[in-house]
Amino acid sequence: MKSAKEIWEAALGELQLQVNKPNYDTWLKDTTGLSYRDDIFVIGVPNVFAAEWLKNRLYSLIKRTVSSITGKATHVEFEIHAPNQGAPMPPTYADGGTSAKLREPVKTAKLNPKYTFDTFIAGESNRLAYAAALEVSEEPGQRYNPLFIYGDTGTGKTHLLHAIGNAVKAKGLQIILTSAEQFTSQFVVAIKNNSIDDFQLRFRSADVLLIDDIQFLSGKVQTQECLVHIFNDLYDDNCQIVFTGDQPPRTITSLAKNLRSRLEWGLVADISPPDMETRLAILKAISNHLNMSIPTEVLHFLATQFQHNVRQLQGALNRVATYAKLSGSRLDVQLAKEALSDITAKDNRRDIMPSPKLIIDTVASYYGVNPETLVSKQRDKKTNLARQVAMYLLRDQNHCSLAEIGRILGNRDHTTILHGYEKIAAEIEVNPQLNESIKEIKQSLGSRKGENPRGRLWKNRLK
Ligand code: ADP
Ligand code: MG
């Protein structure tokens, strides 16, 4: 019988033909066949990102390929395994800048020196994005290229982007930091001056290109085309490119397909709104920074009032601290309430999110299934669809982390949740009926906060 190593080499040969080159190079090239026993084939992968990516995106292809080589149905597992690396590859910038790159500067945004990895609080909600950003800054251009970080406003995307910028700049690398808005206005000027070629060329001076808020390029066809050119140049040169956006590339449908697909070539990492623990850690870090000792109950109060946006959380703490200082009163929850009365009242009116329970009950009722079956192991077609819609909406509407959603839906693994979410997100694009269903459920959620969801009947959408 062939060894695991031989089987995997044969499998890689096949996979190389079926997977596009960027994906093959990023995710498969450094994997190894570790063992093959009792119809279980274990693949060694260099890190947790590769394991997650391969499990989510290529599992069935890999399983099919390995099974066809072993000649029987083979189960596939992934194990983190640091490969025996030979001498490390020299980084692309090892030429000390003597390459053919043009060194004319392009106008770039200023790096905020306060946005570093040291000042970023890592937690469950931003774990993947944080770790990926850190890796990218350690080995720019070598690992996840491009890196795409997405999340809601105030969740720390810009902070991480600048943290990468600050870290690679400290190594003496040339960075270009820009926002999609700034990029667009510079592009417009270049068009007016008839100097598009020059504009594009100037980006070649970058070792690392950082572009914030890519969603602002929506609908701007020419600007996107120009960015694709720049992307191709830099990518071929192994320069690191990092984007941030407010949603994953595949759902920014107003971006051209060729740009969207490039945004997905490397690693797409999301940041959810911070969980309670992270919110508290952030508040503690700020109070340390302010040199103030703020009672734990006050921190808890703030962390409960401002759940989705770190910027608001910071603003609230600053306001409370200032209020206490100016009034000379003791800082307690009562004082915090007074200091924030106008914001919290407004926020509560505008911003109450449907609870996970309401989402599950509403989805179950829409599809005519019992809410308990959604958290059970039952796997018939109707339950599966309803469950995946619940995964999607819990993520979309309630900003739960994947792990939290897994817990809520009967202790399911976070990769299962991600799979469900992505499946529905992709399906909505091509299936108008599902799209309509999701809209109806969302509308219902909007009008039913505070109402008993079981009191209402749905027409069952599934036969
Ligand atoms: P976004 O770009 O996602 O809208 P920002 O990166 O601008 O959010 O973050 C808003 C503010 O919150 C910034 O001051 C940033 O430093 C802070 N912030 C966000 N997340 C964190 C975190 N995990 N740790 C520390 N500060 C954070
Ligand atoms: Mg931002």
Description:
This protein has helices spanning 4-18, 21-28, 48-70, 127-138, 157-170, 180-192, 196-202, 221-236, 257-263, 276-289, 296-305, 310-327, 333-351, 356-367, 371-374, 381-398, 402-408, 414-430, 432-448, and strands spanning 32-37, 40-45, 75-80, 147-151, 175-179, 208-212, 240-245, 267-271. The protein is an alpha/beta fold and 463 residues long. Helix 10 crosses helix 11 (296-305), helix 12 runs antiparallel to helix 13 and helix 16 (381-398) packs across helix 18 (414-430). 54% of the residues lie in helices and 10% in strands. The structure holds adenosine-5'-diphosphate and magnesium ion. The site of adenosine-5'-diphosphate (ADP) has 17 residues, from helix 5 and helix 12.
Bound molecules: adenosine-5'-diphosphate, magnesium ion
Shape by Cα distribution: globular
Strands in their spatial order, largest beta sheet? 5-6-7-4-8
Beta-strand portion reads 5-15%
Summarize the helix and strand pattern as letters: HHEEHEHEHEHHEHEHEHHHHHHHHHH
Low-confidence stretches: 84-104, 450-463
Q: Termini, distance in Å?
A: 49 Å
Number of strands: 8
- What's the overall average pLDDT, rounded? 85
Question: Structural class per helix/strand content?
Answer: alpha/beta
* Helicity, as a percent range: 40-55%
Q: What is the radius of gyration?
A: 25 Å
How many strands, which pairing sense, and closed or not: the largest β-sheet? 5 strands, parallel
What is the overall number of helices? 19
